[in-house]
Amino acid sequence: AMLRLRLLTWDVKDTLLRLRQPVGQSYAAEARAHGLQVEPEALGRSFREVYGAQSRRFPNYGQGQGLSSRQWWLDVVKQSFRLSGVQDEAALTELAEKLYRDYCSSSTWEVLPGAAETLSRCRQLGLRMGVVSNFDSRLEAILSQCNLRHYFEFVLTSEAAGFAKPDGRIFEQALRLGGARPEQAAHIGDDYSRDYRAARAAGMHSFLLRAAGQGEGPEVPPEHVLPTLSHLLARIEK
């Protein structure tokens, strides 16, 4: 049966956009431009460790703990380089500022195959659309740079919402912004717990973008799985 949908909400990272190269590689390239040699693999490992620790200590970019998301990120970048052996504080500050800006641009992000076409078709079907993303305030600019912003009526980041997925309150805010009841809305994302299961817990429909051969995750009914974004239309137009 046709799902009587009015609203689609979208995750962004690895659903609509992905990084053009791994973090370690782009950080190492920026370091080289500053005359510093750092191994991309080591930087990648340092970044994952620092990002994890910072996320546990200051969840959702330090919301309510007196940090700005900008400061949160500058700290992550500097600590990642420190952990990889860079000691020069002046260089660290410059690197952090430059990378914070670079991650706002379409030279860093690329649109996933099928994303623009799928968003365009969904708009043609008359569906309202919004973004629900665990992201900081740069997301509006990134979506504009990548020419996707115009598809969406709203962009709700965890920083703006004050809650991060899988917290159901970010989905409740999205439903209010989109003027829809949960059963009239579907969320699309690539993360089982933060996207698929969290949206369902909020009473919404949801679809999990899971490329073939991505390894075994938890069981999801096949009709809720999207091997590519282009599969979405067949699922909602039934």
UniProtKB/TrEMBL annotation:
Superkingdom field: Eukaryota
GO CC list: nucleus
InterPro entries on file: HAD-like_hydrolase_domain, HAD-like_sf, HAD-SF_hydro_IA, HAD-SF_hydro_IA_REG-2-like, HAD-SF_hydro_IA_REG-2-like_cap, HAD_sf
Family: Belongs to the HAD-like hydrolase superfamily.
Name the record gives this protein: Haloacid dehalogenase-like hydrolase domain-containing protein 3
Gene giving rise to this polypeptide: Hdhd3
